[in-house]
Specification:
Strand order of the largest sheet: 1-2-3-4-5-6-7
Number of strands: 7
Largest sheet: 7 strands, antiparallel
Order of helices and strands: EHHEEHEEEEH
Number of helices: 4
Length: 146
């Protein structure tokens, strides 16, 4: 029997003034790829709590606060700047957007010297994978690998 999604637990929230202001501050700090700034100008947050343990793309304000408190996440050798934690999978693993736009997932809950796996070459592909996970979960109860 396919898994059912409960109403109200999943949403794509439109950006508000605070989201757009936080996005501009992230852009000024030079810690976000251009496509993420564009995303945050339209989308406030994505919450798919019903899909597996959940998939979340945090609001720009949350990402900014985390950056201000903890700094950038090291995304590996050769990167000129660190990555920005932009969400999580609800199971303790975080999604990190590198300055080149590549989306990574941590292997552990720690952001200190994290081990990362590349999950998508850019934000668009990452969002497409999230959408597939939602569709797959609704159809057969399997959330996918994100």
């Amino acid at each position: 029997m396919p898994a059912r999604l409960s109403s109200g637990a999943n949403e794509v929230r439109p950006a508000d003034h605070a989201d757009r202001a936080a996005s501009r501050r992230l852009a000024q700090a030079g810690v976000v790829p251009a496509d993420l700034v564009t995303f945050y100008d339209s989308i406030g947050a994505v919450t798919w709590a019903d899909v597996g343990s959940g998939y979340f793309v945090d609001a720009a304000g949350d990402a900014l606060l985390r950056f201000e408190q903890y700094g950038a996440v090291d995304v590996g050798a050769g990167e000129k700047a660190g990555g920005l934690v932009i969400g999580s999978n609800g199971g303790g693993l975080s999604y990190v957007a590198g300055p080149d736009g590549v989306i990574h997932r941590t292997r552990t809950a720690s952001w200190d010297e994290p081990e990362l796996d590349r999950v998508a070459g850019d934000l668009r592909r990452f969002l497409e994978l999230m959408e597939r996970s939602l569709t797959r979960f609704a159809a057969n109860g399997e959330p996918g690998f994100l």
